[in-house]
Amino acid sequence: MIIVTRPNVTTAELDHIRERIEVLGMRTHVSRGELRTIIGCIGDEALLQEAALVSLPGVESVTPVMKPYKLASREFAAEPTIVRAGDGAGAAVGGRRLAVIAGPCSVEGRDMLRATARAVKAAGAGMLRGGAFKPRTSPYAFQGLGEAGLRMLAEVRAETGLPIVTEVMDTRQVETVAEHADVLQVGARNMQNFALLSELGRVQRPVLLKRGLSATVKELLMAAEYVMAQGNRDVILCERGIRTFETSTRNTLDVAAIPVLKAETHLPVMVDPSHAGGRADLVAPLAFAAIAAGADGLIVEVHPDPQQALSDGDQSLTFHAFEALMRAMQPFAAAAGRELPLPVHLDLREAA
Ligand code: PEP
Ligand code: MN
Predict the structure, then answer these.
(1) Residue 12 belongs to domain spanning
(2) Is residue 76 part of a domain?
(3) pLDDT attached to residue 155
């Protein structure tokens, strides 16, 4: 159930409305926009007697929310949510400016991380990605540097000012990862790890929630609801390709999911063209499509020497290719009414 208040509603009236709902054992969530304030009610809707609420002072309308997701639903928020991972403009996801997160699939060492961070920053990225805990298909493949990788990420953030985005795979890692990272990534394979999602709902860090390999849009939104239900409202959704019968690409980028999500939720939607296509040559066209379809940002894998990468080398861009991508995306961003920072002059000798 959502209650839209009158534009001139007073604080006393708002408090009174909330009390009337909470006394019934329901929870309320207030979303203040410039033009209107919305009170979302969560709990057994049968308890609410619509008529009685409509007549309360300050109430304009009362509408049931039929969707199974509540806090994540578009109706629950007065305005689209902007998630901030730091103070800088580049660390905001959901505003007019497109958010760009770039970096290696895995943190492989301090030097490669530092060089990549400098290169992607110069090219216009606003945040640095890099996995310290890696969800690998094979238990014998490189599993990431773990805590040492987290420390490297934090060091490179101190040097470059770039907020860091890194994956957390397990509830036991949440505290440590949250100590080091600015944004906690939930990987596709963990999208329905409900214990992990609930744990992340109790930390004060934004969550980048990647769509599961075979998850529907509704399941993705219900996963976001798990995080939000525990109190953490800073969730960024990420379309990263889904599994289909097609084998020429690693996954199939579900472009339609972008406008569908934007219609269903107030949460920002990012796209990962690297994992979607699984090939470096597909990153640019998929990124263009994502921007055109209304994505709020992109997360892209970049490596100093993709052929030597310990994970996902095939889909990783070189520094030059990433800079070229940032330039090539400009007209698409402009056509979509979005801003995108232009690369500054990139001195590769310095970046290396
Ligand atoms: C990653 O971002 O490196 C990753 C493992 O992504 P996904 O969970 O989408 O496969
Ligand atoms: Mn990867």
Answers:
(1) 2-66
(2) no
(3) 98
